[in-house]
Amino acid sequence: MALRPRADDDRLVEQVAAVCARAQAPLLLLERVAAAVRRHVPYDSAGWLLVDPDTLLITGVYEEDVPRQAQLALIELELTAEDVNKFVDLGRARVPAAALSATTDGHLDRCARWTRVYGPAGFGDELRAVFRTGRVLWGHACLTRRADRAWFSRREVELLARLSPHVAHGIRTGLLLHESWAEDRADGPALLVLDDDGRVESTTPEAMDRLGPVEDGRLDASVVVHEVAAQARALADRGAGGPPAVARTRAATGEWLLVRATRLAGDVGRTAVLVEPARRSDVAPLLLHLHELTTREREVTGLLLTGMATADIARELWITPETLRGHVKAVFAKLGVGSRAELFARLSHEPPVRSAPGS
């Protein structure tokens, strides 16, 4: 009897791997993965999330039956509350998935998310997973079941962990496929002002052009606005540590955007969010993740961009010139350039990024 569930699990892994092997827009990929997983691992609501791999702030979401206010409350708790199974901790864990029931030994009320959001709404167990390639995180998933349903099993946790590298690869490939540089744009940044409940008090027209309806029931790509605003509030109001309130994301047009937020001085309860076309230098660290440069190759790239002579770089890194040449060759090959000048143009020039025509 135990063989059939294992065979079914293997088929799901193969199905998800096949979905993730086809390059596609990351949110569409998550929607297709969710459909496959939900048939095999039943759940009642879920959020499938994209993140900025450097700040780990959410940049997009495919949500299934999660009310808007619950999403905003979960964003706030993730950034400000001490809690169990936080995504940042799962990202460092040996197993990239965990069930709330197992982590709390069945005492769900030990979790702030459950006490403040899930429990009052009639939900029980939660299953979380992170999608990572090596140590780089590209996204998360959060699945929940109603309180009257069975908790997530150990087998289901292990299954989500098996899916993690496939989904991470799919997200990375989707971003990498559409990477291209566009002409300089004349339009400037878009500005939004949010209150502490996530309501938009004012906005410039460019914001909706780039992110879609910011106050729509489904947050989709606009979730990044609420995420960076929540982080700005955490940094300013409660002195909470963590990454800066900034994230990079893709607009519906394919353009790379830089989204950052700040608490308005002397204006209690309001946060300004700036959305602007990203420069190459803004996106450069993300490109290094997308092209899977090693830690040493990223160090070499950073020093090459400073203009430092190769002999000085070798001394700085305590490696031989021959070893350095090997690293430089690998960097050039991964980034598709043939010289230091081309490398500088690829990573340091000013225009924004958008999808290739017709993609």
Name its key features.
five-stranded antiparallel sheet; single chain; 19% strand; 359 residues
Task: Describe the secondary structure blueprint for this structure.
Blueprint: H1 3-20, H2 26-40, E1 45-51, E2 58-64, H3 68-80, H4 87-90, E3 97-99, H5 100-103, H6 112-118, E4 123-133, E5 136-146, H7 154-177, E6 190-195, E7 200-203, H8 205-211, H9 223-237, E8 246-250, E9 256-263, E10 270-277, H10 280-290, H11 295-305, H12 310-317, H13 321-335, H14 340-348
Antiparallel strand pairs: 1-2, 1-5, 3-4, 4-5, 6-7, 6-10, 8-9, 9-10
Helix pairs in contact: 1-2, 1-7, 2-7, 3-9, 11-13
Q: Your description of this structure?
A:
- The chain is of the alpha+beta class and 359 residues long.
- Helix 2 (26-40) runs antiparallel to helix 7 (154-177) and helix 11 crosses helix 13 (321-335).
- The relative contact order is 0.12.
- The protein is built from 14 helices and 10 strands.
- A 5-stranded antiparallel β-sheet has the order 2-1-5-4-3, with helices on both faces. The chain has a 5-stranded antiparallel β-sheet with strand order 7-6-10-9-8.
Give the fraction of residues assigned to helices: 40-55%
Strand order of the largest sheet: 2-1-5-4-3
Individual helix count: 14
For the largest beta-sheet, the strand count, sense and barrel status come to: 5 strands, antiparallel
Which residues form runs of ≥5 with pLDDT under 50?
A: 180-184, 349-359
Tell me the number of strands. 10
Report the C-alpha radius of gyration, rounded. Answer: 21 Å
Oligomer: single chain
Global outline: globular
Q: Average pLDDT across residues?
A: 83
Structural class per helix/strand content? alpha+beta
Instruction: Spell the H/E element sequence.
Output: HHEEHHEHHEEHEEHHEEEHHHHH
State which percent range the strand residues make up: 15-25%
> How far is the first residue's CA from the last residue's CA?
46 Å
